[in-house]
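Two proteins were folded this term; both appear here.
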Amino acid sequence: MRILKGIVPGVSRLARLQFELSKKARQNLKWFSYYQARGNNACLTCRHLDISPQTFYRWKRRYNPKYLASLADRSHHPKHLRQPTYSAELVEAVLRLREEGTLLYKLAAHLLYVILDILQTACFFLPPGSLPAPECVRATFP
């Protein structure tokens, strides 16, 4: 950048701009002004500003001195979202089957409960502990 008679080139163009830089963009602009003031020494700039060279070079690749908005953060939203590979009819069918399946599970659980109740009342099913344990299995404690 050349300074003639105390005027920075492009200052009038920058003054006409109607947008305000974000805090991050102003910080990045300070990085590049320090970088240019030190003779384009990236290693010295990274050490002085305590940033990694990878970060500095990423911003250097994006930086356009004629378009200061290039210093602003980009959107983190994905550019392309995956499109569903299934139809709406298939989704409805799966939801319907899930509801029917839930009802079937409830019905099966209820039937199992009723059958166990019948077996217990008919003495086909003895509750645990009603039969004595064999002597070899029973533990004896002093």
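Next, the second protein.
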Amino acid sequence: MPNWCRNHIEIHATPQIVEEIQTEIKEHDRFLEYCAPIGEWDYELACETWGTKWDILTDDSMRLDIEELEDDLHIINIETSTAWGPPLKALAKLKQKEGVHSVKCHYIEDGMCFCGVWDDDEHQRLEYNPNDKSTFEKNKYLTEYWNLNGHALEYDGELL
């Protein structure tokens, strides 16, 4: 069983692309295969192509929201988990598709104490120690986004 990485993915794209993504997730239980197709699943190829070994979790913990901005631009927000780390390689491939305007991913892997944000190829990553508050000073944006200060104040249910 892997450590799960939580991902908040925001995609700005044409209505057609947003509909295709929604269909892939809801009807076929996959997203990364849409972003960067590998065909028949292969461990090495999945890791190399997607940046993670399995496609996204499409269970009850997943959230999918669509916002219609204009006739030619919609936003799809996906909150899901992937094995070990974020699917940044697959998202980079998605960004190259015609009709995709931008892709952003916030992610956190609590078990290995790292988090980050990837925004159209710009990447910030923070490795933190929940017992050392000084590690949160390295990136205030990510610390606030994931509420890491609150995370660090509690250890085994007791305030530090």
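The chain is about 30% helix and 35% strand. Residues 4-126 form a domain with the Alpha-Beta Plaits fold (CATH 3.30.70.260). These notes refer to the second protein only.
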